[in-house]
């Protein structure tokens, strides 16, 4: 594979939620140029079929390849859970591909054993069974239990974060008997880090809340370092593309990236 350190890190998501992952990458790798693509014209991916998510993910990966990226970071859990294997088949050897699930499974493998771990995400992520498969095949005696919590995405996007509505939805999902006695909970969705404090509070800080964005960013750094692909130019300027643009996306992008960014609309066809 003929990659060079000054190529950009390509990242994609179904929308602006993946900016939580882009932000974690920006924090740990400030010198890198990021190219982010959010497929706002097609979101949410969490309610779509595997075939449709694969089709969209391939189109976006081609865009990142044309932009000469050195990686495809699949920031979206729904796409990581359903499209990773297909993207690997088509793009491996041309650039590096990282999903958001394997780094979390590695983290569990290195830090937990003999315990019960919860996973919450979209329907596409949970129905794929991707986290369960990874945990059962890699980890010592960890029992995964997973639950779709689809209302969290629109709730967060509509700004219901610290109020009675969000508290009621959080309580209703997380008091499920399925999550009884878990020692940790994986936030298997780009949006959920935004309500991490409220989830922590719900469990009275007795459950470790695993926010995959930081874990993925650390694994990406290792991946680039071990291949001598970390940027040396220190420019670090970034480009953010969306397949559809509204003022609302611009507003919530700031919540996810924690700073104002300039968004460009691009059509892939
Ligand atoms: N980005 C998606 C994920 O992490 C959540 C939003 C959606 O359903 O498109 O699964």
Q: What's the alpha carbon Rg, rounded to whole Å?
A: 18 Å
Q: What is the overall silhouette?
A: globular
Spatial strand sequence of the major β-sheet: 4-3-1-2-9-10
Bound molecules: D-glutamic acid
CATH architecture descriptor of the largest domain: 3-Layer(aba) Sandwich
Describe the structure.
The protein is an alpha/beta fold and 269 residues long. It folds into two domains: 8-99 and 214-265, 3-Layer(aba) Sandwich (Rossmann fold); 102-213, Rossmann fold (3-Layer(aba) Sandwich). It contains eleven helices and ten strands. It has helices at 19-28, 50-66, 77-91, 102-111, 123-128, 130-138, 152-157, 164-174, 196-202, 212-226, 247-257, and strands spanning 9-13, 34-38, 71-74, 96-99, 115-121, 142-148, 184-188, 208-211, 239-242, 263-265. The strands form two sheets. A six-stranded parallel sheet has the order 4-3-1-2-9-10, with helices on both faces. Helix 3 (77-91) links the parallel strand 3 (71-74) and strand 4. Helix 1 crosses helix 10 (212-226), helix 2 packs across helix 3 (77-91) and helix 4 packs parallel to helix 6. The mean pLDDT is 96. Residues 13-15, 17-18, 43-46, 76-78, 121-122, 125, 153, 189-191 line the site of D-glutamic acid (DGL).
């Amino acid at each position: 594979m003929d990659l060079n350190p000054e190529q950009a890190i390509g990242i994609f998501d179904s929308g602006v939620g993946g900016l939580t992952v882009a932000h974690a990458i920006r924090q740990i790798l400030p010198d890198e140029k990021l190219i982010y693509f959010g497929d706002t014209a097609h979101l949410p991916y969490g309610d779509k079929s595997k075939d449709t998510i694969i089709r969209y993910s391939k189109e976006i990966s081609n865009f990142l390849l044309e932009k000469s990226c050195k990686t495809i970071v699949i920031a979206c859990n729904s796409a990581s859970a359903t499209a990773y294997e297909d993207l690997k088949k088509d793009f491996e050897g041309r650039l590096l591909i990282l999903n958001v699930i394997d780094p979390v499974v590695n983290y569990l493998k290195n830090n937990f054993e003999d315990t019960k771990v919860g996973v919450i995400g979209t329907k596409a992520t949970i129905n794929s069974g991707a986290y369960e498969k990874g945990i059962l095949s890699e980890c010592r005696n960890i029992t995964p239990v997973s639950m779709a919590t689809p209302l969290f995405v629109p709730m967060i996007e509509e700004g219901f974060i610290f109020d009675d509505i969000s508290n009621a939805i959080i309580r209703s999902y997380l008091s499920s008997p399925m999550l009884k006695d878990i020692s940790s909970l994986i936030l298997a969705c780009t949006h959920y880090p935004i309500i991490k404090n409220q989830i922590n509070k719900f469990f009275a800080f007795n459950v470790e809340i695993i926010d995959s964005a930081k874990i993925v960013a650390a694994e990406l750094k290792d991946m680039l370092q071990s291949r001598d692909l970390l940027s040396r130019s220190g420019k670090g300027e970034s480009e953010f593309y969306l397949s559809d643009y509204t003022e609302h996306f611009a507003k919530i992008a700031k919540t996810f990236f924690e700073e104002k960014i300039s968004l460009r609309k691009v059509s892939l066809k």
